[in-house]
Structure to design on (1473 residues):
């Protein structure tokens, strides 16, 4: 591989691959294509970066304090030399050193002047205030153009292929031209470059790798609260109450029986939580008479958590199904759903089949679970991205409400069978499924209202941009288009 | 499509789209980079488009009728001004207005002349005949160059990242140069541009967002027919017959017992439907003596539905497995698969284990299901695209036929155990599994024939391009290469 | 962000990033864009290639020996002509003919001189020695520049869209400029081009399509060995021993009961195999005092198999769960986990519930399985690529060890209940779960050692690059950064 560095100074175009030749330029172009990209630093990240650049067809020169020792650590095709030599030929310089070593770079101030420095650094902790690493670097080296980028890409991503789509790389710089140059570089390295504007945005970009699944926080909190509530409720009614009242110890049945009841209650309640914000948003739009008014903040956040709520619902419903199968026997209070098992004259046991209620109960639960699994599969990014908007909407909205109706049927059959039992209120509290079904009933009622012709036609008009009156200045926003109330969006 | 070849020898640059600067142009380049892309219209789509362009590093200027009111709706970085001002500096103009407002654009005819207009419009209904929106726009503004594109991308996709791979964007225009310019623009916006040729193709492109899972229609119809047939057959034999004959009411066992039997029958029949067209195609090729003759239309469509049939088979087999577990007891007619449960001297029940037939029956069913799940996972686009052709073929063909053999074994063990029972033909009809297994046997026999050395060597030669005789003109086609009869392709 | 609009009229290039042609070049550019790409050969691959090029906006000209006959086989937009005519206008030539026909190309030696030939050929068998097809072609046509590439892309991939991300295409050539030109071409065809350096690498590139899931070989071998061992062990203890000792025949219970035991043992042992190499690597780094020393070869390979081991563990644990549910009854030796089922005065059977041990046993097993399924979903490429490094690490490491602890609890509860039974050592061998749990205990102990503050702080320092002493030359390597011992990486 050709790694010889032509040292032609700053006037040489920095793009190694492009520059396409017309015939007469060919000599010049080949020269240009050898203009290397420099990397300062010889750590792991530097090495992975060098490898990716080489595989993307760039000439790479690494500036190291101890080139002889470090040479063997770098992939074939990358030249390892002194900092001074590395900088002389390059126009684009990756700064792959720790922030605490930035001041040392001032020694090379002159060699770095006029060049584009790409700050790839990350922090180990979120800095609440103060400047980003990139801004600090720009302050130290005012003669260079600093661009923030690539920090969201790990050494591992640099070394691996791109199955599952290109990683996004966020670029910011105060120099628009430098930003575009580095965006082009990122694309040539098979990343998807996103323009984040001025260097101040580096604060936001540096915070990204420190995030821990932020889109899941709200949904997880909601589901954990619901689950805790139902576990406590069911344990009180099924264990604590009897322990206090009659001294019976049913604690042995917490792990499966009470937990499983709570999981079922949580699953259907979470399903309500998925579909409620969309219905509320419709009412908000009807009330506002426009879609350009911002939703209350809580509603906005709730709508953005619907995908995660849906996936958590699938997770919980799956565990519920598994535990239900394991306790599926007349022993566990399901005797009303089974015919009696008896002993015949020969002393053989003759098993009872399920009643119609047991079979219907199971069928709808099973169908709801497997249709929800289809929704889950459609939420896998590469599956969802192969659908058009109409298809995605069909799957998430039509199929989603079908799942809801099946789940409500599953729950209702069970309740209908248990309704008449006298012990329902024995613990001075209703069973948890009363709470679930009340939530479901309210949601269904509200949904039916939005489907009434007179209401739905007005909602449709509003969503197409119609407004009852001109919005007052300062209250409108553009945030809405991201979230469609009709969508129950698992994606 | 422009395919005329200019024969200018080697001195002409071969790259149609790029054309990079050499050093001395650099000043000019920075200027060029500020030339903005214009957007006409200020609806949701316009705003999402502006955001994506800004994030992709473009200067954006939005032409609005009421710029002061709309400015705040647009993302930072996009300039909102009057139509006239927006058009003056741009060469590329997104037309993000409704078709019914196209005539209004004629007011700006002069400002739009010589520019490339990108028609992003969609229709709410499929237009059977008549011109596309893009052709209509081209007719209204003959001085401009109209390019169709981006309509398949929703506002949501514009605003979101690209997890799961870039969305494809289909571009058509009568001007090849304009088409290439817009394709480049699409790629710079991180979409994958596909050239659809002349503007007439806009009719096809405008129909795309109105599609509702067309690749699933045939498979869904086939599976629904099969399922309905088996449900009716099983309900007749298990419920209707006894109701009429002896007045016994077994309707309570429809939801699980009869539906589950029908699901099992449907799953194995669907598996046959997955593998049958590939075998038929081999025979068609043997008969034709060439692979260049078009298959009958029905076979072609069937082959293209194999992936969907396979996924529906997995869906149905999963539900069948879940319901089977729930009814897995001697009560449900499986007493031949269990040893007797008895009562011992203490009055305790001593449960019977399964016989060898019960255990074998379950083992093969379980293995078939989980291997089929592996096939399903390999059908996820980002998983499938990480495999080479040989690996994909191995998974879909070798593993697929293993699933089929395991499923047939599962079914056969059950049948073998039930075969001798006298009540099999009591309803003057055979049980449904006779039908399944007959289909399986026929398919296996045909498959074995294609595997005979004399047959398979000829099929291989044909697939490598050998022909018994030169094809007659007008009967050949190139459609075949897309569908490989050997592949049972879930992808 | 720079949004100022320069109003310079129509002659200014509109593309911000690419430096497109300014006005006066326009004529030249349009001309250039018509310079076609040539394809030699008219087989299936040639046709798919032509289609992809046309859809990517290229002018395509196909050189065929019999253009009149083959024209109709090619997609609209591709010109089919004689070889001589096709070559005259092109500079880039795809050579889509079989290796055995390469010598025929020497007839067109002059027309091919100075052009870039892209060798897309594949072999049907792995060639142990000798030159690659591309080197052979370069030897036959010394006047042309040969580039290897595209052979990893099937005709099917060429014809289909890019759901699931672009396919990678590996490019090698001795001419760096030609390599870059073809890489650009590949990217314009919506593939991701990877630079593989000189033409000698074509040997490696040509071997790629012949690979059959090489990353799975080691993991599959390990798991199959473990599974075979446990099946034999369980069949000996549960069937062979009793057959020999007392003549009892328990063979009927091999398919579910003994296989399922073996699957459970295999699942937990495989989980140990996933987490062991990471712990061993930590100790190796502690011992070496640096992270720059290469791990022993076996450890390196083992670490690279962790993802596959994890997915196989999920597969086996799922089957184990399904079979367990099917045999979940006191009949199958689980009577210690159930209360007694009795017969009441009416002759009705009163089912016993599970004891606390049975419920706990099932709960932890179920939770371990479904959390492992979450890890499996995070291993889907398009899901994993949407996470940052911290998130990925959290899911694979934190969640992974949680799964391990739950699985160990599941196993321990069962063992605790069975521990006291006198028949444990009746066959002169311990039950298999003794082996599992011993492995788990050793692994847990080692893991706990690495978590001790004094040890973990030193490991952290080593991983950040600290070294106890300068490494000796010749013993260091860069391979390490790819595999992080902390990661149990299912991805």
């Amino acid at each position: 591989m050709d790694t010889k560095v032509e040292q032609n100074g700053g006037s040489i175009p920095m793009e190694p691959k492009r520059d396409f030749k017309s015939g007469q330029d060919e000599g010049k172009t080949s020269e240009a294509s050898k203009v290397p990209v420099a990397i300062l630093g010889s750590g792991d990240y530097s090495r992975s970066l060098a490898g990716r650049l080489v595989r993307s067809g760039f000439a790479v020169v690494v500036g190291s304090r101890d080139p002889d020792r470090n040479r063997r650590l770098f992939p074939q095709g990358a030249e390892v030399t002194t900092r001074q030599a590395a900088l002389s030929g390059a126009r684009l310089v990756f700064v792959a050193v720790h922030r605490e070593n930035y001041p040392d770079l001032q020694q090379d101030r002159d060699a770095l002047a006029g060049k584009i420095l790409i700050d790839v650094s990350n922090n180990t902790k979120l800095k609440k205030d103060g400047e980003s690493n990139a801004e600090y670097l720009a302050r130290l080296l005012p003669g260079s153009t600093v661009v923030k980028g690539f920090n969201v890409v790990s050494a591992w991503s640099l070394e691996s292929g791109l199955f599952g789509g290109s990683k996004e790389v966020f670029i910011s710089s105060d120099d628009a031209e430098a930003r575009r140059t580095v965006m082009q570089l990122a694309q040539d390295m098979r990343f998807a470059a996103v323009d984040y504007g001025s260097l101040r945005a580096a604060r936001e970009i540096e915070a990204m790798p420190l995030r821990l699944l932020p889109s899941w926080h709200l949904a997880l909190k909601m589901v954990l609260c619901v689950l805790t509530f139902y576990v406590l409720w069911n344990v009180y009614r099924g264990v604590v109450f009897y322990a206090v009242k009659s001294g019976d110890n049913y604690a042995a049945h917490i792990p499966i029986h009470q937990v499983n009841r709570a999981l079922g209650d949580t699953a259907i309640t979470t399903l309500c939580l998925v579909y409620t914000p969309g219905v509320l948003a419709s009412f908000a739009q009807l009330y506002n008479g426009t879609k350009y008014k911002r939703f209350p903040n809580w509603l906005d956040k709730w709508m953005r958590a619907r995908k995660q709520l849906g996936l958590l619902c699938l997770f919980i419903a799956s565990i519920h199904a598994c535990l239900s199968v394991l306790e599926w026997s007349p022993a566990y209070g399901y005797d009303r759903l089974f015919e009696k098992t008896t002993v015949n004259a020969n002393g053989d046991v003759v098993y009872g089949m399920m009643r119609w209620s047991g079979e219907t109960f199971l069928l709808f639960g099973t169908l709801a679970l497997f249709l929800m699994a289809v929704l889950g599969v459609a939420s896998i990014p590469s599956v969802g991205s192969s659908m058009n908007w109409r298809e995605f909407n069909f799957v998430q909205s039509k199929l989603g409400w079908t799942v809801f109706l099946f789940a409500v049927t599953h729950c209702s059959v069970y309740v209908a069978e248990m309704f008449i039992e006298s012990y329902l209120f024995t613990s001075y509290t209703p069973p948890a499924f009363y709470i679930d079904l009340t939530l479901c009933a309210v949601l269904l009622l509200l949904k039916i209202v939005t489907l009434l012709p007179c209401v739905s036609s007005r909602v449709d008009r509003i969503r197409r941009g119609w407004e009852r009156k001109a919005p007052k200045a300062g209250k409108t926003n553009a945030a809405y288009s991201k979230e469609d109330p009709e969508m129950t969006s698992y994606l």
Observations:
- The beta strands of chain B are 37-40, 60-63, 78-81, 92-95, 116-119, 145-148, 168-173, 192-195, 342-343, 349-350.
- DSSP finds 18 helices and ten strands in chain B.
